[in-house]
Design goal:
The complex is a heterodimer of chains A (about 220) and B (about 220).
Chain A lengths: L7 H5 L1 H35 L2 H15 L3 H16 L5 H26 L3 H9 L4 H31 L11 H12 L2 H35 L1
Helix pairs in contact in A: 2-3, 2-5, 2-7, 2-8, 3-5, 4-5, 5-7, 6-7, 7-9, 8-9
Chain B lengths: L1 H45 L2 H16 L2 H14 L6 H26 L3 H9 L4 H31 L11 H12 L2 H30 L5
The chains are: A mainly alpha (about 220), B mainly alpha (about 220).
Chain lengths: ~220, ~220
């Protein structure tokens, strides 16, 4: 039995792939925004915190980092609502999971960034009479941001790839779109031949854009 | 607390087979990707361009695609090019290829982090390429290689959970089967999470202690 490639059916449903790709990028973007807030807050809490605070932050980080993302997705989508008697929309639930997930990874990134701030900059802030809060906002945050920018770009690409797991709870992103076309047209080979490169190419385009943004931001900062 | 332990004791027999499958998959993938990845990494560092170029393309495609998509793609693409594999070997092949690409990058980074003077010194005392590699470069590169490699081992344990999506009963799917009977998702997912955590946390603690141990070595 011979299999003939036929891309016309995939082409007919290509809107699902484009919309899926857009949703994948959107999910990664929202998650990294929330993840940055979580990550920065916890990194600050960790660096200046007491022992129980540090312990709490590292338990959160270690738990998330050592459990498969797939399990976290199921845990948040099926596990937690079942015990509380409520339910979430699949997309909301996935964004929550991915935000908590990226938050745990970004705590480490931000913590390394905060540690790498030159001591002199903080002392200078003290010398001109800035309060700890002002030092955080006007001195430590901007310097840290410049240090962690490349890591943030990498985290974003990695999250973009992780959004493929949202398909398991029927969030209509790119992998879900591919599965839908596969199930409805039986054109499995064709659809995956198209979708895998879509991820690769999008990843590289995002990377190029982010590297360009990094360069222009850093150029402005050095002046 | 008592209720939790009796729950664990009554559930574990059903997860046990799945846990073994998870460990088996992780072990096979780690073994294959270690051998293949180190060879690929050596080729990245020293190979001629006509060997590097195709490997570079394959590696970048594999690393640029989500593991889930790599698995689904190979699942349907392999039969198309005439390789009819059972689900488990197909999954092992796909995930090993994915991990090989990552281990290759780790190896390349480790080798290239060794100062060029070391190679020159090896040449100066008349060592052949193979001798330089075995006696000079690799023993030093190992300490750069180990910590990220152990991280990739935890990634393999975590990534093996995707095998549940092609219908093979690993820890993840075993947990879901128990849930299918008891309709109690939360405690079972928490228990599965704890098992994954124990495996991976021991591995990442090992990686941290290795990192601390090698931290004193100067260049």
């Amino acid at each position: 039995m011979e299999y003939y490639l036929n891309f016309s059916l995939v082409w007919r449903h290509s809107a699902r792939l484009w919309q899926g790709l857009a949703l994948s990028i959107e999910l990664a973007f929202i998650s990294i925004l929330i993840g940055c807030v979580i990550g920065f807050a916890l990194a600050v809490a960790y660096t200046g915190g007491s022992r129980p605070v540090r312990w709490a932050v590292s338990s959160y980080v270690e738990f998330i980092r050592n459990v498969p993302l797939l399990l976290l997705i199921y845990l948040v989508f099926y596990g937690i609502p079942s015990a509380g008697g409520f339910s979430f929309d699949a997309t909301e639930s996935f964004v929550m999971t991915l935000s908590l997930y990226s938050g745990a990874y970004l705590v480490e990134v931000f913590r390394a960034g905060l540690d790498a701030i030159p001591k002199g900059a903080i002392d200078a802030g003290k010398a001109i009479g800035l309060t700890p809060w002002q030092r955080l906002i006007h001195v430590r945050f901007p310097i840290m941001l410049r240090i962690v920018l490349p890591s943030l770009s990498n985290a974003f690409i990695s999250l973009f790839k992780d959004t493929s797991l949202a398909s398991v709870i029927a969030v209509p992103e790119l992998t879900y779109g591919a599965n839908w076309i596969k199930t409805n047209t039986f054109r499995a080979v064709e659809v995956w031949i198209i979708v895998a490169p879509m991820y690769v190419v999008t990843g590289y385009v995002i990377l190029a854009v982010l590297r360009f943004l990094e360069r222009s931001l850093l150029r402005g900062a050095r002046r | 607390m008592n209720g939790w332990w009796s729950f664990v004791v009554s559930t574990m027999p059903f997860l046990w087979q799945g846990l073994l499958m998870t460990l088996f998959i992780a072990a096979v993938v780690v073994a294959i990707s270690l051998v293949a990845g180190v060879l690929v990494g050596i080729c990245f560092a020293y190979g001629p361009w006509w060997a590097r170029l195709p490997l570079r393309i394959c590696s970048d495609i594999l690393r640029g695609t989500p593991l889930l998509v790599v698995i689904f793609t190979s699942y349907y693409l392999l039969p198309f090019i005439g390789l009819n594999l059972q689900p488990l070997p197909a999954f092992l092949a796909a995930m090993s290829a994915f991990m090989t690409a990552h281990v290759g990058e780790i190896t390349r980074g480790a080798i290239q982090s060794i100062a060029a003077g070391q190679t020159d010194a090896g040449k100066a005392i008349g060592l052949t390429f193979g001798q330089r590699l075995v006696y000079v470069i690799l023993p030093q590169a190992v300490r750069r290689f180990l910590p990220p490699w152990i991280n990739s081992v935890t990634d393999a344990v975590k990534g093996s959970s995707l095998v549940s999506l092609v219908g093979i009963v690993d820890l993840m799917l075993a947990a879901q089967q128990v849930i299918g009977r008891t309709y109690e998702p939360l405690p079972i997912y928490v228990l599965a999470a704890m098992i994954y955590f124990v495996i991976n946390y021991s591995l990442s603690s090992l990686s941290r202690s290795l990192e601390a141990r090698y931290a004193y070595v100067r260049d």
